[in-house]
Sequence to fold (268 residues):
Amino acid sequence: MARLTNMMALFRGDDAKQGSQAMRFDERGPVMVISMIALMLAEFYVQNNKVFSNLVTLGAASQLLGFVFLAFKVWQQGSVSGLSGKAMQLYALSTLCRLFSILQYDGYLPVDWTGDGLYQGIEVCSMIVVYALLVCVRHVYPSTYDAAADTCSVRWFVLGSVLLAAFVHPHLCRRALADACWMCALYLEAVALLPQLCMLRTLRREVRSDRFIGPFVMFVAVARLFMASFWARTCAELKPRGADFNLPGFAVLGSQLLQGVLFADSMI
Fold:
């Protein structure tokens, strides 16, 4: 009888704790399973067809799905509580820098058919969704934004990324500004999750059990796995002509490794 009463309370939404646990299972489970299946299928396809540049497009698509999930949850609950506006600012700047490069030059575009417009379209969609999330934080649901908990200063991340990209970047576009912008996007992306993690820690919420941010982190982690897998195979192409050391290649791999460490730390 007590079990039946608890089930009825959960159905009505009276027991917030049990409802939250049920929601975690309902949302995180399918996201994790689908992400892992997609990762294995994509890796199988790439290995059999030897078209490694597909991984770049798959990574961009996975990250877009993460942003779309966030936007859907904001729309569904009519709140941005728990969402870091500063993290979205870093993602917005990162996407903008990347678009500046890939919409003008083909140095960092996939060499397969997805580089003829699909990859660029995915990045444009990501920018639109991220800016929509920023509008929700600043103008649509400002009363639900946890501004007091979103205290991580991003100005140093931006300044450091710009300066580092100016001196350490590949040369695939053969245009210094375009190459630096693409690399700046990578550096910004490497630290973009930090404000979100700091915010959740301030709110005493864990990523692995948060039904709002947890699935987003999983989607972005899968995206980083795709990108790391691609650059691990092709980073030798980033070595400058006549150079003895592939500094840009190691910088790219290092940024991927940093993101992997952050994701692993947030989910453990």
